[in-house]
Each structure stands twice: as structure tokens, then as C-alpha cells.
Amino acid sequence: MSKITTELLLERAVPRSTRLRKIETLNLSKLQLKTGDLDPRLFSRLRHLQKLDLSDNLLDKFPSSLTLPDLRVLNCNNNQLEDVTALKQFPLLEELTYENNVYLTLNDDYKVMFLLENLRLLNGKDITKLAKHVRHVNSRKLTSKVTAHWEKFFRDQLPEKYTAEQVKSIRKKFLKSVQTNVVYGPSSLSEFTRWRVKMIAEEFLSYSLGLELNSDTEPEEKAEENEEESTESPREDAEDVAQVGDFSSYINNVTITPSKRKRNHSKSGGGKKRSKSQANTEEGAEDVSAEPLHFLQCHSKGNSREDFKTQLWSCVFEPVLDSGARKDPTVSSSRTVATCGGESVCLIDCETGTVLKKYKVATEEFFSVAWTTLTMVINDSRKKAHNILAAAGRRGIVKLIHVAADFCYGEIKAHKKPIATICFSPTQETHLFTASYDKRIALWDIGIPDCDYNFKASQLLVLEAASIPLRIALVPTCPEQYLLAGCEGGCFAWNIKLDKGEKSRPFEAIFQFPDDKSMTTSHRVDGLAFLNDDVVVSKSSKPGCIYLWSWSRSFDAKGKGCQRTVSAVILAELEWSTTDMSYLTLSTCPAKGYVFCGDEKGSVWMYSLSSYTTAWGSPKGKRSERRISPAQILQWPELRMNGEQPPEILVNNVVSDPAFTYLVVLTSVNITAIWKKS
What we know:
Layout: H1 6-12, E1 25-27, H2 40-43, E2 51-53, E3 73-75, E4 95-97, H3 106-115, E5 121-122, E6 125-126, H4 128-153, H5 164-181, H6 190-208, H7 219-227, E7 254-256, H8 276-284, E8 290-296, E9 312-317, E10 336-341, E11 344-349, E12 354-360, E13 366-377, E14 383-393, E15 397-402, E16 407-413, E17 419-424, E18 431-436, E19 440-445, E20 458-464, E21 469-474, E22 482-487, E23 490-495, E24 504-505, E25 509-515, E26 518-520, E27 525-530, E28 535-540, E29 545-550, H9 551-554, E30 564-567, E31 569-575, E32 586-589, E33 594-598, E34 604-608, H10 610-617, E35 632-634, E36 639-641, E37 651-656, E38 662-667, E39 672-677
Parallel strand pairs: 1-2, 2-3, 3-4, 4-5, 20-24, 25-30
Antiparallel strand pairs: 5-6, 7-36, 8-39, 9-10, 10-11, 11-12, 13-14, 14-15, 15-16, 17-18, 18-19, 19-20, 21-22, 22-23, 23-25, 25-26, 27-28, 28-29, 29-31, 32-33, 33-34, 34-35, 37-38, 38-39
Helix pairs in contact: 3-4, 3-6, 4-6, 5-6
């Protein structure tokens, strides 16, 4: 039974009333009301209600038909509202407050300013002039851009006589294209802009061209909208824990020579003639041509456009919610990527180049970021999956950020020395590994925050390393039992099974690799990743050396004793730069069989290895005798910063999304480069 009755409404009226139709002011605050408690049939009798207080309840949205034709003042503070568009049913609304609704952002402010023409006060501020600008100037600019987009790209696609199927197809393509490519205003309003652009585009198709709209949104379009749920731009926080920077993400003082933006063709490193077998393999490989999309300078200290010194270290694509991500890696991420370097962490839309969110900690230098998806309790009866971003660096502290709410809800003081890298378990959503300069790798249970963001983190395990761990990777076939780490002094493996009892553990094995004519364990391993369930890719301090080796054939799980030395069973060696520069790490795209590694000249070496993996997977798979050349080397375009050539550009990291649509390149000169596969 609903909590709201006729008797309650009469009692909570100010002043008390004997008839619903006479009530002008109503206080329904602090009643633990949920959306289902707002009965439209009962509220429709409040014909003269002008002031309504719904603060301090549990509302997540408004019913679309409350029918309050005379409502002028509405208070929704301290609820759980996720959307404001239903407020358009109150056209006479003049004053609106909805502070402390953590899911609402600056974009929602602009939506209500557009939808409610009589609105004067929003959260206590006079928005008359701004609202007028939003409704008129903003709309005029966007309408012009939408019309131009149609004329330039779609007008000629529509025949003079068209079928209903043709209309449906071109409408779908146009709506998708226009939301992606029409950009206007600051990046903090990108979600509002997409919302308005879609609205304007639908009106344009319907009224200007006479293309009738289908009221039912197609499933494909719904899926695309869901992918962008978490890209709403944030409301600024007062704390320095997660401040948001609103500024253009593009490098306005960097120019790209147009001739250098042409497609890069395959280039073999070292200039050596390839063997016939190598040539055939590469000719049969998938075309990996890519085009540069964006060059961004979004990690500047103090937002300075002159900062070309901040080093960028880590990036990872955001998982898509409710996509079955753990089952199909090719749909496990969106086009949103988290990057870190210097004092900030950024979320970037790879297609548009828009910086969606930016978090700053003035005294920090971030080295690593990682995503997990937690099922959080929104209220007593509802649970919802949310993406959580962890970020860590020089201070040894892990920041936990609820991205959709734009809120850094907590921190874990994990180590007393800097944290080099972090990663979440793929099977235990709350398990986080932190690898530190204190020569330890810790496993934490970060817990699940409640509706008030209270959480409890606990340390489950400490792995003792002989040297500083630089990269870590969980073994895909047994992620709850074994962890690999590339360290300053070699490559190590630990048994991480939690039922073993010991909370502090030494390494179980150290791997030795070829060194001239012998084998050695003593080398820096600054790149480490799995190409598939068995093949490990590791990069050592030996110039030009990237090894592929078999985990199962190298490591005998039945072997006895700790700290034993085992020889890595080498499957192949990749041809790479001859530099002795360290910390230029590598990454893999398992679903597509690619390995990526940047070099000291700003280039990205891409290796297509899917044709090799089948042979390597057999029990007696032989080592590839010759070094495997890259399928392509993406060369750094000619950039000019303030009219001058940039200094030495090191590629610290390069990461693709699981489907290999985008390639994100992080550099030593505070530039994030985004490439798109052609």
C-alpha cells in the first residue's frame, strides 16, 4: 500500500486543509518516499497546488503524469534522482531545488533550463539570463550545425522517391552520426549537447524533411545510449580530492602538418630484408592501417597550455555495464578511456576527443588506473551496477572514484612508498592488487560502499618481491591462484590462493631468459601482459628485446619449493627498437591477437600474431627461429608546439580497446594521442 493517502495529504498541507483541491502548499519531506509512492490519480486532485516539498526522500525519478498544472515551487533536495526530464510536465515552475542528488550533474541543470521556460531560480541561483541563452542562442547554434551536417553528409543519400525502409535506415545513421560529430560549448556539457542535438535532429527530420519518426527507439540505439550513461560531465566538488576542470581538451597551440596525417604503411624495423615466410605471414595478416584522430593536452599542471613536461603513464578503457563483459572481451569496453599522469586523472571520449571528466589531487603524481564494476545498494530495495575507477601513484594512496556520481568516495593508504601499478581481479570484483616501490605487492578487498558511501577495505595478502615490481598480470586460466610480476630484478611468480593460510609470501618462481649465449634471471622487466590464456609477452632491459613465452610449459605448478629458478620456454622474439631506454611498456589485444609497444621516437610498433598462436598452442609447438617484424609502425606525426618542434617524445604506454577500434598513446610530453583503426 502506498505511503501517501488523502488523510496524509490533508494533514501535511500548510496550513492544514479539509479538501485536496484547496491545498496550495504541501510538505512531504522526510517520509522515505519512493517513486512508486507518488500516485498520479491522487496527485491529479491537487489542482491548485503551487508549492511542493519532497526533500529528504528516496525518489530516483518523477512519474511522467503527476498533473500539477499550477505548480510554481518544487524542492527535491537530498533524494536519489537520476533524471530531470520528467519535470517538463510542470510548465509554470519558477523555483526548483535538487541539491545533494549525487547522480545529477551540470548537464541536468542545462536540461531543466531548456525544458522549463518560466524557471527563474535553480538551486537558489537566478538563472534567467543563462536560461535565455540556453533556449535561444545555444539552440540556434546547434540547429545550424545539425542542418549543415545533414547537407554535407546525408542530403545526397536520400533518393527523390524513397521507401519506408530507406527512411528508417538513413534516420538511424544520421542520428548516430550527428550526435557523435556535432560538438559545441565546453566539454563539461557534452552530454547535454548530445541530448539537444538528438532532439533537434529528430525535429529536423520530421518537420523540415517530412520524414516521420518512429516513436519506438530501436534496440541498437538504446544500447548505444546505455554505453554513454557514465559519460555525464561532472558538477564541481569543493574538495581537492576530485576536482573537475572545464576547459577545451584540444591542444590549441599545437599544429599537425596535414601531409603527415595520411595513412601509415607497414614499415619493418631495422631495415633488414624479410624472409619469404615472414612476408607471406604479414601479407595474410589483417590490415592494421590507422589514422590519428586527436592529440590532447589534458593533464597539464595548473591547466597550463605551456606544460609539455608532465609524463603520462597509464590508461584503461571503461567496461560497458550489463554487456556480459566477462564472457565476450570484444564488447567489454566503451569508447571512454581513463588516463593518468601528473596531478590528474582524465576520462576521454575517444571518438570526439572530449574530456568528459577530470579529477585532480594537487600533491599527487598518478602512475596507474584500473576499473572494476560493483553492484551497489542504491536504497533498501534496489541494486545497481556501477563502474568504479581506482587511481594510485607517488603518495602510496589508492583513490576510489564513483564515476557516474562524480564522487571520490574514499581512499586506501596502501603503501608508504609510491605505487607503480594496480589491477583488479577479473573474477573477484572487490579484489585489488597494488604493486609498490616498497618491494611488495598487496591484495586488498576494497569492499562495496553502501548508499552513504561507507565502505571497509581490508588487506588480504602481501607478496614479498626481491626488487621493485613494475608490471603485474594475473594468469588468465587461474587468476585466483597465480600472479606474474615484471620487476627491476627479473620476472617472478607468486601463489596467491587465499586458502593457503600465510598472509605474507615470498615468490614461488623466478624466470630466466636468454642472454647472449647463456640464461639469466637478472634483468629489468618493464613490460608484461598475456596475449592469450597461455602466451606471455614480456619486455626486458636488453635492447630491442620482446619475448613471447609459454606460461604452462615454463611453470610447473606441481614443482616443489619456493624461490626456484625456471627457464622461460621462448616461443618467439619480436623485432623492436634498439634503444636501451627503460619503462616504455607494452600491451596486448587478446581478442584480435595484437601486441603494441611504443618507442623512444614517438612511434607505435604493432604486431599481428593471430597466425602464430595456433602453432604455439600445440604441446610441441616450436619456437619461431627468426624475429617477428611488426605488421606496421605508426610514426608520430609532425607536430608544432607554439610554432616549434617538440622535444624528444617517448611513448610510455599504448593501449587499445578490446575490439581494437581505438589506440590510445601516452607520451612523455603531456600529449595523449588517439588513433582509430581505418
